[in-house]
Design brief:
The complex is a heterodimer of chains A (about 400) and B (about 240). Chain A is mainly α. In chain A, about 65% of the residues lie in helices and about 5% in strands. Chain A is built from 16 helices and 5 strands. In chain A, helix 6 runs antiparallel to helix 11 and helix 8 packs antiparallel against helix 11. The longest helix of chain A is centred in the C-terminal third of the chain and has 30 residues. Chain A is globular, with a radius of gyration of 22 Å. The two termini of chain A are about 20 Å apart. Chain B has a single domain, classed as P-loop containing nucleotide triphosphate hydrolases (Rossmann fold, 3-Layer(aba) Sandwich). In chain B, helix 3 packs parallel to helix 6. Chain B is globular and about 45 Å long. The N and C termini of chain B lie far apart (about 40 Å). In chain B, about 50% of the residues are buried. The chains are: A mainly alpha (about 400), B alpha/beta (about 240). At the A-B interface, helix 9, helix 10 and helix 15 of A face helix 2, helix 3 and helix 6 of B.
Chain lengths: ~400, ~240
């Protein structure tokens, strides 16, 4: 009885994450906000950092992290495959576009916004728009989930795929949506109000401060993820993922449990959408395509389904390679060898290879969740393992 | 006063295949009632219908006088009907303790849940030794003990047991049946499905013999063990 299970160890170390996260976060922030622009810094360092990992790339990665954490709740925790997650990103983005810009120029609504009174359009406070975006997405999550969650996983995946196509298409062609302009179509909603970080309004060039903002939003998502996981809902998700029928026999209400996963996941998508709109300072319909859904799913799978830290790592690595890493590598490579290979065009080849190798050799992801690891290697258990004599606690 | 469980003329179908044609079963409080019959007779389907996993096409099920057919499964669990399913269906990648905790998913009284945890672990001391082990790595017998214990964690008034002795060594079969008697002594009513009809009739008060979706014979366990037709067909004498 004195044995402590692996699961207990993990949750104990999770309890102390806030301190480590805060230290790492402030280190990043100080580096990008103060150290990097400092004149005394040797210019070589500035250029190297700016080439390999400029602050905007870190910010973009963090936006992906926020959304991957949301998708992780749906896919990793509850075991429901979602191939249309980009829809929530789009909805969140347009919430920012509608409520924080001059898009509705014929209106003049201000509510603790960050622009001077009298500016046309709807200008609601950034933090409130975050919450609005989250809840609108959660509502859509429930609306799409309620009729479809009774489907078995493959069919559910197809429905989400359709949803992920429809929503971005609606916005893409949204100049005339039953007579209303809801999205400016392909032109997008170009200027979004600066997001206030308490004392300062963050414009397009305040990447360092936005980093702090996104780090905070990521922390909120990590907190929500870990908290829910340990609670009653987390146990219900786990049970549903393992065996739906048995879970229902234990009294787990299946529909409610799955809908909750959808709603929380969608909420995170909304946060990410609003964050992304402030990151790029606008909302552009063509950014929301199917590839993003797959990209986010790949982050979750690569990092380790169900493990928050794994998902963060996966999202960071993939979005960095996609956004900056590969092109920086290409530049360095071409400069040193005198070649002119377009490395960025190999991005998806690289991703494909990475996924194939991951599936062959490390199916459970970079930082796996202990149970997922068992699941992925189940076929490899031999008879000696299953007769109960050996204690297989996992490593 | 109505019976604890009353199943009246239910008909259950999977798509077009009718698994249960016409089954009526009653269970009184404090009894052990067993359903026996060969494969495909409709025993498991009857149990799954009672616990709300399938809805009957026709017929009525009531529990302590209240209609429960058509209610969702989790509400039926909340009323005190817990099901230890066919094929055990434990959560293999969770520890024994986590499995037991899930059995008490709908209960909020932590102290009572902990007391029940002690109680079931006293019934099956083997599980106590394996409390932090992944359930899937235990032997078949231990997994069966866990499946029964997990259902007990829901604090059932009526416990549905589907083939608790399936695939177990004779020693373990004996242990399981001894435990079933103990569980009844603790005040739980039991509806039991068994292929091992001899053992089932030994512990049960009453029995129903099912054949191709219908109740063929029913009566007290004693009568049935003496019945020629039953002994020939199911007891192998």
């Amino acid at each position: 009885m004195a044995k402590v299970s692996v699961a207990n160890n993990v949750s104990k170390s999770n309890r102390n994450w806030i301190r480590g996260y805060t230290i790492a976060g402030f280190f990043l922030f100080i580096t990008y906000q103060f150290l990097l622009p400092w004149d005394g810094l040797p210019s070589g360092i500035y250029q190297t950092v700016n080439q390999w990992m400029p602050p905007s790339a870190v910010n973009e990665s963090l936006v992906y992290v926020i959304m991957a954490l949301g998708l992780n709740i749906v896919v990793g925790y509850a075991g429901l495959l979602d191939l249309g997650y980009v829809a929530f990103w789009a909805i969140g983005g347009y919430c920012a576009g509608w409520f924080m810009s001059e898009f509705f120029y014929f209106l003049n609504i201000h509510f603790f916004g960050s622009v001077p009174a009298g500016t046309p359009g709807i200008h609601i406070n950034f933090w409130m728009v975050l919450i609005i975006g989250g809840f609108v997405c959660a509502l859509f999550g429930v609306l799409i989930g309620a009729p479809t969650l009774r489907l078995k996983s493959d069919y559910l995946a197809l429905v989400t795929l359709g949803f992920g196509e429809i929503i971005p298409q609606v916005f893409f062609n949204g100049e005339n949506f039953f007579g209303f302009n809801i999205s400016n179509g392909t032109k997008g909603i170009v200027v979004v109000d600066p997001s206030p970080a308490g004392f300062k309004n963050l414009g397009p060039f305040d990447a360092g401060w936005k980093l702090l903002l996104f780090l905070f939003l990521t922390a909120v998502m990590v907190f929500i993820s870990l908290r829910l996981r340990r609670g009653r809902l987390g146990r219900a998700w786990l049970a549903v993922r393992e065996d739906e029928l048995a879970a229902s026999m234990m009294g787990v209400p299946l529909m409610r449990t799955k809908l909750a996963a959808y709603a929380v996941g969608a909420f995170a998508g909304g946060l990410g959408g609003v964050a992304f709109a402030t990151h790029v300072n606008g909302v552009y319909a063509e950014r929301f395509n199917f590839a993003i859904s797959i990209f986010l799913l790949a982050m979750v799978v690569l990092g380790g389904m169900g493990n928050v830290w794994g998902v963060i790592l996966g999202a960071f690595v993939l979005s960095w390679v996609n956004g900056n890493g590969l092109s920086a590598f290409g530049r360095v490579y071409n400069d040193s060898f005198g070649t002119s290979i377009d490395f960025t065009s190999f991005t998806f080849l690289l991703f494909g290879l990475v996924l194939i190798f991951m599936m062959l050799f490390k199916r459970e992801g970079l930082i796996p969740e202990s149970r997922m690891k068992l699941l992925m290697h189940e076929g490899e258990l031999d008879d000696a393992d299953s007769d109960g004599k050996k204690q297989k606690a996992g490593k | 006063m109505s019976s604890m469980l009353e199943v009246k003329n239910i008909q259950v179908a999977y798509g077009k295949i009718i698994a249960v044609k016409d089954v009526s079963v009653t269970v009184e409080k404090g009894e052990i009632v067993t359903l026996i019959g060969s494969n495909g007779a409709g025993k498991s389907t009857t149990l799954r219908t009672i616990s709300g996993l399938i809805k009957p096409k026709s017929g009525e099920i009531s529990f302590n006088g209240q209609r429960i057919d058509g209610m969702p499964g989790h509400d039926i669990v909340a009323m005190g009907i817990c099901h230890s399913p066919e094929g055990r269906r434990i959560f293999p990648r969770m520890t024994v303790k986590e499995n037991l905790e899930l059995g008490a998913f709908l209960r909020n009284d932590k102290a009572a849940v902990n007391a029940d945890m002690e109680r079931v672990l006293d019934l099956f001391p083997r599980l106590k030794e394996r409390i932090d082990q992944r359930a899937g790595t235990m032997s078949g017998g231990e997994q069966q003990m866990l499946a029964v214990s997990r259902a007990l964690m829901g604090d059932p008034k009526l416990l549905l047991l589907d083939e608790p002795s399936m695939g177990l060594a004779p020693v373990l079969v004996e242990l399981i049946f001894e435990t079933i008697v103990k569980i009844r002594q603790q005040g739980v009513t039991i509806l039991l499905i068994e292929q091992n009809a001899t053992a089932a009739l030994e512990v049960a008060d009453r029995a129903y013999v099912l054949e191709s979706g219908k109740v063929k014979i029913s009566g007290s366990a004693k009568e049935l063990s003496a019945d020629d037709k039953v002994t020939k067909a199911y007891l192998g004498h």
